[in-house]
Design goal:
Elements (H helix, E strand, L loop, with lengths): L18 E5 L10 E2 L7 E4 L6 E3 L4 E12 L3 E6 L2 H7 L1 E3 L4 E4 L5 E8 L5 E3 L4 E9 L36
Antiparallel strand pairs: 1-5, 2-3, 3-11, 4-10, 5-9, 6-8, 6-11, 7-9
Length: 171
Amino acid sequence: MTDSTVTSTVTSTVTRAVIKIVTLPHFDGLALPHYATEGAAGMDVEAAVDADLTLAPGQRAAVPTGLSMAIAAGHEVQVRPRSGLALRHGVTVANAPGTIDSDYRGEVKIILVNLGESAFVVTRGMRIAQLVLAPVMQAVIETTDSLEDTLRGDAGFGSTGLGVTKGKTGN
């Protein structure tokens, strides 16, 4: 067997959509959502708290960002946790991924929950979540009397990891 080195060149084509942002009075002095690196999928968003906010273990709070936004039609902004906060402190976004709909115009708030073992303090300007712009498809719902069979059938809740190949059918 020979050693080989594979070199890959990634050419990135990024599709962009405009998000219009209004900064609210309590946003003053904070940074607009921004990508930390060229290849980042999410924009960091900061806490616009007026005073430190302590989350006890198990506690959750809607943390203000001081931002309202208009998202391009056909898109949503997903609110995702910051991996460092989750790993080091057990702090995450409670409804991850949260969704900001394109027709919502109120203040964006991030629902943080402390799943850790110690109290966590949210301070003004702390990067608390990531915002990811994503396209949206809306479904057309059709009722039916039956569904086509599949190999999986109705086997769920971990069944694909347990070697179950087919649930009961009869839908």
